[in-house]
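Q: Predict the assembly, please.
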Amino acid sequence: METFALLLQGLAVAAQPINLLYALVGVTLGTAVGVLPGIGPATTVALLLPVTYKLDPAGSLIMFAGIYYGGMYGGSTTSILLNTPGESASIVTALEGNKMAKAGRGGPALATAAIGSFVAGLIATIALAFLAPWVVKFALAFGPREYFALMVLAFVTVSAAFGDSALRGLTSLFIGLTLGIIGIDLQTGQARMSFGIPDLLDGVEVTTLAVAMFAIGETLFVAAQGKRAPETVEPVRGSLWMSATDWARSWKPWLRGTAIGFPIGAMPAGGAEIGTFFSYAVEKKLSRHPEEFGNGAIEGVAGPEAANNASAAGTLVPLLTLGLPTSATAAIMLAGFQQYGLQPGPLLFTSNPQLVWGLIASLLIANLMLIVLNLPLIGLWVKLLTIPKPWLYAGILLFATLGTIGANPSVFELGMLLVFGLLGYGLRLFHFPIAPVVVGLILGPMAEQQLRRALAISQGDVMVLFTSPISATLLIAAALALIVPAILRARGKGQVLAEVAADGD
Amino acid sequence: MKHLLATAMLAGALALPAAAFAADYSIMAPAAPGGGWDQTARSLQESFTTEGVSGNVQVVNVPGAGGTIGLAQFAQEANGDPTKLMVGGYVMVGAILTNKSPVTLDAVTPIARLTGEYEVIVVPAASDIQTLADLVTKLKADPGAVSWAGGSAGGTDHITAGLFAKTVGVDPKLVNYVAFSGGGEALAAVLGNQVTVGISGYGEFQSQVEAGALRVIGVSAPEKVAIINGPTFKEGGVDLVVQNWRGVWAGPDLTAEQVAAVSADIEKMVNSAAWKTTLETKGWNNTYLAGDAFKTQLAAEITATEAILKDIGLVQ
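A: Predicted assembly structure:
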């Protein structure tokens, strides 16, 4: 009950007009930078840090929180409308969301993303307030071996969820895994597959690859088809708003996405993307319309969008309770705390309760503000789709290029954008799914590092992977996910086998 | 909503040539926002402007590869341009060696060392390791059984672990160092009892030490540090001092007058009240060392670092 009283006090702090103004500035800026690929919330907060030095701590942290939530939210808009993920956590949203937008259902896609983000943000923020100490205990139980097991599970479920052909999906995944090897190896400091090119030392940037694969690849694909391309883009078909069926199909994914995203976000090595992958895989598995996946299933937007917002709240759990930043934005918010001589950690809740609760309360307000700001704008956003194709795609190219250079002003980065764009075009041409490439780039290096850490700690004993109850459970789940469908197929119950056979490659 | 879109694109367009516009100083942080170099660059920016040393200061982030990517870019862009500065430090010295970077610190002009942070070794509160002597005993008995969590390979944390082993007579190659992508992730591994000890800058562990979840068993400082509740390495019987220092460089091919002008500005900044406040809030030591003294120190540091990285086996 004490928590509740503190939260109410926090709401009183956050509801002061000046703090509301900071929250408004934060969410607006956050949405704007989330929209632009490459420029993320981390950079924005870093740029604003010196500006906010003169503000009071509560005001500036409230603004940062607004930017963080706004960024998570803004990334989905471009994913859905332009197939250009603004942030790596919105990659999955592009899969179904853009298909929906092209079928004239951009309105419902944006709405389910907005409401899903709101619902997830609301629940996750409340969970942050009430459950933080327990969640963090669970998260700390994850060591390298548990993370590795989690990655294995992610590989199995995710690669099965993307595309129809297992072979094509795996091929794409392995392209991503190969790209993930490039760069300096964290454990030894040695450069791998960088061929003496300094720009490759730090590996391939996820957003560069994602933007290239999705936006550039698609632009090239559309351009190559020229006049032969069927005019498939319908700006609006049916209602701009979500129908009763949309609601019925969205609410469960919102809740499941929240339940998946929040704990994964709270893990020190979790990250926002992994929750979205899991959420997508789960929704596809549970959907009554699995055939719609890949063609614009609303569940595939609702779940991952809820998951990425919930994980944004999740990353605040270790930040506030342990002083442990788990994302770039959290790291800068930590610097923000330190700027005021505050040390986030177990003592912050007792030493500065007004500030912590003010921040949590302002997250609730930022969340509400986002939905109030964004829902009425959906009608305007979808008008983007009425722009004639040549202009639209030229705009996308400009947008993707600007974002990439803005984030990393280097000619080489631009070259990579184009090369990966060509790769994306090639994959599209031969019907290989795009998403597993990006998934491989994100998960591959994580899985490798965690496995090597686990083995280093155990001094090479592989059994260590199975002796932890958590990792054993995750590995068994992964094995089941791999074996059960195979058995079902062998008994002739799945159509997938038929498709694999039909593909013949 | 096109308006917002236009604003966002404008922001992107402005971010792009920002470095090209006339700025009194442009400071490169060769790392992503949030880390030590970024914080140093932004603190410089703040002190410069509040003290009126320079009216307009830009910070440019060029992340990657222990700062060597930024260094290569800086050596090229800042050639003969006295308005460009770069932040760097001990980690960059190590990264240049491990990455075999084609561009080294010889290519730029050292201006001054500014700050320093001591390394600490911590254990979970429940650990059976009570003192530094306990750790040394364990390490000598079976070096592989002691896992060390710290930042990336070849960085200050790794070097300190290697030097520690060498000082107590254990082959640094045998040190079971587990690299995490930063002190924060290493902290989680220590808290979760995944590793034997954690090693990083005190700032990474401070809040957990104060809360009693971690115990400091050794500090790499020459003498007791007021804010850190734990013995120095020396007090614990290990004769070793390490400091993760950071400093500032200017571009290559500057005239003596230009170097003198930049150095004067830095000195003015170091003596300012704003900078002193920054050092205090961030918990950084003032290690200001300028001119030839810094150059000599830097050369010695590079030789020593190369030797220990060879011992660890990261450099052939």
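Chain A touches chain B through 75 residues (CB under 8 Å). The beta strands of chain A are 183-184, 191-192.
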